[in-house]
């Protein structure tokens, strides 16, 4: 049976917002929760001990908790935070950089995160020998690219697919949110706090295009594979990942859960989701076309 | 000369003519790719078939220069064989090193061609020494090319914590994003550097003169619009003008070239092994011009590191070929971030 996971919060939210959010999540039908700051080392509203406290509460609520590591590791202080997570001793870790894999390899089981660039079964098998028990498919991969990996994946390896949320498309050394405010990154005044769903970047024709989230760039459209649940299940995908947004995450979890557990037409779920996605949706990556494209979803029951 | 003063000049070549231009103008190494998606400059009409590669290697070796082959995209399970064949072909041709990003391919190369030097491509996204030491331990890499995201202080710190040779970018088009961790291109066009070896591919570009100005589009997404007085640039999607709030500006990055000539003494002092020039997609004339300037600069810096100054003539030559006729120190200079 497929499990439902909530990915790490990619935005910078106020401390109380984060704590309230996870309190709400504890009561939702999600099986796995990924915790931690993966985007920017300057975001400190929760420290490792705070995350561990949240993790304990979610564990008590029956969730499997995984601690996610920062994707772009540059400085010694980034490495120090990484080592503290790798050595936490209680929770599984999602490695989002090969430096994290290096620290975890042979020591404890880990999740190979979506930014490790695993595009083939050989890379996946190698990570399995180092201790990976689950991997998250890079979001730009299509179903057709996943299928042969599924047939050849190492025994016991779980496959997780990013199925809902604004797509994390790129990481940079530069902070685009600070740039938008003419501030240097080192003195960003934590402007990301003002954009709990990211800062919208539009084309000169005023079309929503991308979303600036500090050093990360996301799609404006929400990637949504709720119409593909049957295919995902038939391919043997083990875990579906929902990416948190500031509003409606519990509702989205509930809609996915319902569609996973009982017969459901994508159309009815989509009707309810329509207003929950800020700038429309897309599913192009899964279909092997441009990521921003959206296929026509049949309204037949 | 002190041992750390050795600094290889690694120059790009998208054709045999460009390779010869690089060697003739003083490149220590030339890097090339084969004519398919196995490398990150998979452009029509560019790159080397087997016979051109053989001739290029012969030419370079006879002049004492090395040839590196970039196999730095990510094979998929369904097309793996093409990448494996490319590794075998590079080994058979007698190249001096292969530049790799994919874990599986690195493992294959280490097992089947252990004598062939392996370099970690910039597409491998290794921005810290733990990551670089991972590739060294697992696959015995000799060199790592750093993504263009670290400040000078961070480069130095990293360099002190690994025995892997470090290669950095010195000049050329600037990737603002961490290489290997950017899929903006496939989001818009379906093709990205990781999977297809292209960014903002030419086949997705459309130009149109409109009442508001000349528009460039990538798969219908408006990347920029130019007034009659402005120079239009290639619509690499991160270098267009977009709206954030009420402002329209280069929200991600201006069209500009990275140029680190002024950092040369510092790069030598901290023990950088090689400087890479970007631009396999550029003309043989670009390669000749840029190689000549950097050869002069490196030689001058090695002779007298303390008296090294960037000559105005060098900058003038480089600015002629710089993207947007501008240059930047990029992330090496912390305020850029």
From TrEMBL, chain B:
Chain positions recorded as [4Fe-4S] cluster binding sites: 175, 182, 199, 238
Pathway terms, separated by semicolons: Cofactor biosynthesis; ubiquinone biosynthesis
One GO term of the biological process aspect: proteolysis
Statement: the UniProt record of this protein carries the keyword Transmembrane: no
Keywords linked to the UniProt accession: 4Fe-4S, Hydrolase, Iron, Iron-sulfur, Metal-binding, Protease, Ubiquinone biosynthesis
Pfam families membership: Peptidase_U32 (PF01136)
An annotated Gene Ontology molecular function: peptidase activity
Cofactor(s) the protein needs: [4Fe-4S] cluster
InterPro entries attached to this UniProt entry: Peptidase_U32, RNA/ubiquinone_mod_enzymes, UbiU
Family assignment from sequence similarity: Belongs to the peptidase U32 family. UbiU subfamily.
Purpose of the protein: Required for O(2)-independent ubiquinone (coenzyme Q) biosynthesis. Together with UbiV, is essential for the C6-hydroxylation reaction in the oxygen-independent ubiquinone biosynthesis pathway.
Subunit relationships: Forms a heterodimer with UbiV.
Protein name: Ubiquinone biosynthesis protein UbiU
Native organism: Sulfuriferula multivorans
